[in-house]
Amino acid sequence: MKSYNTLEECIKSKSYDDFIFKQNHLQKSYSYGSLEILKKFQKKHKCNLYEYVDYNLPIRLFFYVYLHNSKNNFEDIFSNIIKVLKFNKEDFIIIQENDICFRIIHKYLYVLSFEALDNFLFKNNLYNITLYKSQFLPCLYNNDVIINEKYNFEDSLLNNIDTLLEFKTDTNILTKTITSQYIQNIELKLFLSLCKFI
């Protein structure tokens, strides 16, 4: 594992198979290495690692669920999301980042771009899902996150897509641009219906 003072130096130096992490244990904050080396580093030093996510590359299917207040039940919201998206609940990793924020990551599927994922989730009109770009995300075994099940470290990294299946979003959002200055006429057609009078 090699470390650098800046993220730019780390990005330039890493190979294709390496992952970048931010850590506060070493003097140089930005490190890269293979998954095995990073897992060993975290187990040995028991420090928090923050995964660097490159949103220009394909990423795992993921999203955030925010609870709007303490009365919201995460399990009910998540079950509804799974039902609408037609996925299996067991195929997801759930990382609770704080009291109201849950990061949900699919174990087996990836999308080609962040924008394609955003359009897919928008099309399904789920009000509890949020999607935003954060350059560094807390890792699975950090002290500042809560996990309720045992997951594989490599399954939680958004840019780790080597063994995954591509999820086809096939989302075409139609847009219509109106260039006229005034509202066009509305045609109202009279439809005849049968009425029975008693």
Q: Tally of extended strands?
A: 10
Low-confidence stretches: 192-198
Straight-line distance between termini: 87 Å
From the alpha carbons, calculate the radius of gyration and give it in angstroms.
Answer: 23 Å
H/E series: EHEEHEEHEEHEEE
Question: How would you summarize the topology of this molecule?
Answer:
Blueprint: E1 2-4, H1 7-13, E2 19-23, E3 30-33, H2 35-45, E4 49-52, E5 59-66, H3 74-85, E6 92-96, E7 101-111, H4 114-123, E8 129-130, E9 136-138, E10 165-166
Parallel strand pairs: 7-10
Antiparallel strand pairs: 1-3, 2-3, 2-4, 4-9, 5-7, 5-8, 6-7
Structure notes:
This protein is α+β, with helices and mostly antiparallel strands and 198 residues long. Helix content is 20%, strand content 24%. The strands form 2 sheets. It has a 5-stranded antiparallel β-sheet with strand order 1-3-2-4-9. Strands 5, 6, 7, 8 and 10 form a 5-stranded mixed β-sheet that branches. A hairpin with a 4-residue loop joins strand 6 and strand 7.
Relevant terms:
198 residues, 5-stranded mixed beta sheet, disordered C terminus, alpha+beta, 4 helices, globular
Summarize the structure.
This protein has about 200 residues and is of the alpha+beta class. Helix content is about 20%, strand content about 25%. It contains four helices and ten strands, in the order βαββαββαββαβββ.
